[in-house]
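FORM 7B: Structural annotation worksheet

SECTION A. Query
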Amino acid sequence: MRETMLQDTAVATYDADSDDKRVALGLVTEAFAEGCLDGLDGDCMAQAALFAAFQELVATYGEEATASYAEGLPERIRAGGFTTTLQH
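SECTION B. Predicted structure
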């Protein structure tokens, strides 16, 4: 059941997800901004956020389900699933 729940999140776009996820994204975005204002590099913040996110996913769903979820990330990245700027 847990593995299915994680796989389902890989199919839906983040924008279509619940209000709680939008609020969570806003909080993470604010944390990034604060880190950058404190002099931390955006890349450093991103890597720390990814580590924390995968640590939480593993704790919630387990290694196998998280690995399966991560396998779909290259396709989503290449398809613009995380792009927020206009592409020319």
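SECTION C. Observations
The chain has a mean pLDDT of 84. The two ends are 41 Å apart (CA to CA).

SECTION D. Sign-off
Analyst initials: ____
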